[in-house]
Specification:
By secondary structure, the chain is of the alpha+beta class. It is built from 6 helices and 8 strands; from the N terminus they run ββαββααββαββαα. It has a 6-stranded antiparallel β-sheet with strand order 1-7-8-4-3-5. It is globular and about 45 Å long. The two termini are 16 Å apart.
Length: 154
């Protein structure tokens, strides 16, 4: 499993191309030639960039869902809406499809934020707003999510 580290400020050009910072590109090196999948986030107004191996693991899990249950079928349809395979070109640029640029409200300033095994792609203003909104309750959230409830940390 790959694990990304860091938050990076970038710029998107008029065609939706974003230059991946060298530090992040170096972290992507083991999976760079296998491609990526980009999709809208379930919970936030951002996009998610999955290395193909991570995407395939997720799809294996989703494929176990019973498609004859309406809620499963509805979830799979919505989850996969707008999903596109993408690559990072030889110059280190990622081309974000136009429809996904619009969905995420990406203008010019972009934030690439590591989220363990994926990279979130945000419009900078939206990212700053979400970070500010969660700052006040982050201590309580950290305690709830990571506090000692029987789960062991490494």
């Amino acid at each position: 499993m790959i694990s990304f580290i860091g938050t990076y400020d970038c710029k998107a050009d008029a065609k939706g191309r974003v230059m991946i910072p060298v530090t992040l590109k170096n972290q992507m090196a083991p999976v760079l030639n296998k491609g990526f999948v980009i999709k809208r986030s379930v919970f936030q107004p951002c996009l998610e960039l999955y290395p193909m191996e991570e995407w395939n693991l997720l799809m294996q899990k989703m494929n176990k869902k019973n498609r004859f249950k309406k809620k499963n079928n509805d979830f799979i349809r919505r989850f996969s809406a707008g999903v596109k395979p993408v690559e990072i070109d030889a110059t280190g640029r990622l081309l974000i499809p136009r429809n996904l640029v619009a969905i995420a409200g990406i203008k010019k300033e972009v934030v690439l934020s590591s989220a363990i095994n994926i990279v979130e792609i945000w419009d900078k203003d939206s990212y700053e707003k979400v970070i500010d909104e969660t700052a006040e309750n982050f201590a309580a959230l950290a305690e709830e999510v990571m506090g000692d409830d029987g789960d062991e940390l490494p």
